[in-house]
Amino acid sequence: MAIRKIVKLGDESLRKTCKPQETFSLRLWTLLKDMADTMYQAEGVGLAAPQVGILRRCVVIDISEDRSGLIELINPEIIDRSEETQCGREGCLSLPGRAGIVTRPMRVTVRAQDRHGKTFELTGEGLLARAICHELDHLDGVLYIDEMDREMTPEEIEADNQRQQRLAEERKKSGE
Ligand code: NI
Questions:
Q1: pLDDT tens digits, the chain, 176 residues: what are they?
Q2: How far is the CA of 174 from the centre of ligand 1 (A)?
Q3: Per-residue confidence (pLDDT) for residue 1, from 0 to 100
Q4: Among 135, 151, 156, 176, which one carries the catalytic annotation?
Q5: Rounded to 5 degrees, what angle do the CA atoms 34, 9, 106 make?
Q6: Own/partner pairs for 86-89, CB < 8 Å, 24+ apart?
Q7: What is the CATH number of domain 12-174?
Q8: CA distance to 78, 126, 152, per residue, from 168 (Å)
Q9: If you measure from the C-alpha of residue 47 to the centroid of ligand 1, how many angstroms do you get, rounded to a whole number?
Q10: How far is the CA of 173 from the centre of ligand 1 (A)?
Q11: Burial 48-76 (b: 16+ CB within 10 A, else e)
């Protein structure tokens, strides 16, 4: 397991346009594995390659609670987005301790390549749609703070964390 260093706001990697990933071999698979390990260790739901200083169009996402739903997107492009939107909390591992309210499409369809170069399409709703939009933005040097409706206050973040924790505990209980 190799944990890579997540670069923070102010690092120029976060503001670059990433290049397409053109080779699908061990070097890419190592990057993807490291990105997943790094995301899980940081308890994030997504990570883009520029966040570990690699300017390639590669993203990992896992919105599942038990961390079993890894999605790898290589050279992803959003090909369809719903008119219906969602408005909610968003944060970023490169901006620790901060969060904002961001409006995103409720549903997006992405076309991407897998780790072997095979093209596939994926439709995500709700949190998955939000994560896809957020991570794909990273590939073009865009951060959620560029698009947010407003920044959340530390008090709002704390209250929301507590609410999320309560919900998670309730889900756990009802699953027992
Ligand atoms: Ni991010």
A1: 899 999 999 999 999 999 999 999 999 999 999 999 999 999 999 999 999 999 999 999 999 999 999 999 999 999 999 999 999 999 999 999 999 999 999 999 999 999 999 999 999 999 999 999 999 999 999 999 999 999 999 999 999 999 999 998 998 898 76
A2: 32
A3: 81
A4: 135
A5: 75
A6: 86/126, 86/129, 86/130, 87/149, 88/130, 89/152, 89/160
A7: 3.90.45.10
A8: 30, 17, 21
A9: 6
A10: 31
A11: bbbbbebebbbbbbbbeeeeeeebbbbbb
Ligand 1 center from residue 22 Cα (angstroms): 23
Residue with tokens 């190799």: 2
135 is catalytic: yes
For ligand 1, the distance from its centroid to the CA atom of residue 131, given in whole angstroms, is 9
Q: How many residues does the chain have?
A: 176
Ligand 1 mean position, distance from CA 159 (Å): 22
- In the numeric block, the tokens 């959003």 are attached to 78
Please state, in angstroms and rounded to a whole number, the distance separating the CA atoms of residues 93 and 172. 25
For 25, the token pair is 């071999």
Token pair recorded at residue 131 = 């994560």
Where are the chain's structural domains?
Answer: 12-174
CA distance 25 to 37: 19
